[in-house]
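Put briefly, the fold is written as integer tokens. One such record reads:
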Amino acid sequence: MKSEMSRIVLGTDWMIAVPNLASWNIVPTKRADAILNGAVEMGINSFDTARIYRSEGVVGRFVRKHPLGRGAFRIISKGGHPSLFWRTPLTRGKLLRQLDDSLRALGTDYIDVYLLHYDDPKVPAQAIAEWSVELLRSGKVHNIGYSNVSLARLKEFRAYLREANVSPWVSNEFNALPVKDGERWKGAQNISRDGTYVDYLREDGLPFLAYSPLGRGGLKKYIDHRLAERKLEDERRISRLISLGQKYSVPLSVIALNYILQTAPNFHAVVGTSRLDHLKENMRALTFQMSEGDRNGLAFSSCSY
């Protein structure tokens, strides 16, 4: 029987494979295997990768060799990235080609959740929705979705997807941490302060993957950087996190992750780490529940969730 996706998903963007093939790769085999095996032992069965990460080969090799078999794991991958150095337009051919490349790298005949890595607003929503349905009907993906997508465009996609009875996954940045002004990178979507967006996801029951749940990188370093800017709102938010950590006797990272997981039962957090002790610590977010008042006290003032 196919297992459900774990609430905490292991991010693998640092596991760059050389070559990027499941059949074999020489780096970072030992280090990555230690994290992947440790994650499975802790109850994580879901791995987040992408064509642009070049980690599909490591994930695929691990899954192929594991005694539990392919059906025990959920693989999330992404395609359609505009590229790091020059922006190339999204086309049907590009999406189909990158999907086949991902399947080849992963060494599998299907991907559990396949996301469009970045929206291309120049492409009509109807076209992207039709391509999404085509991918589903091919059997090469079991679920489709969109990463770094605005609420307006998501609603457009869904208007066309409903005709095919398709409900998409969504993935954007979402966390309880101080928000840095401006985009993290061009096209990135941070919905941490967007109560309308979060309410839409919750009320419609859409499965959601929160990336950068700990602000991307070491939480202490992130907090120290935000405090250095001496913004009153940031100081208050960080003080609140520290207070809750003391109340529940858990690290700040655990409070931050628990906040996401308590937002809705189908919200998942993508955690990327190369240290097993950090991953074990993060898993504590599944072992307790903040009071509704404490959890809501972390929500941004513009949010009702």
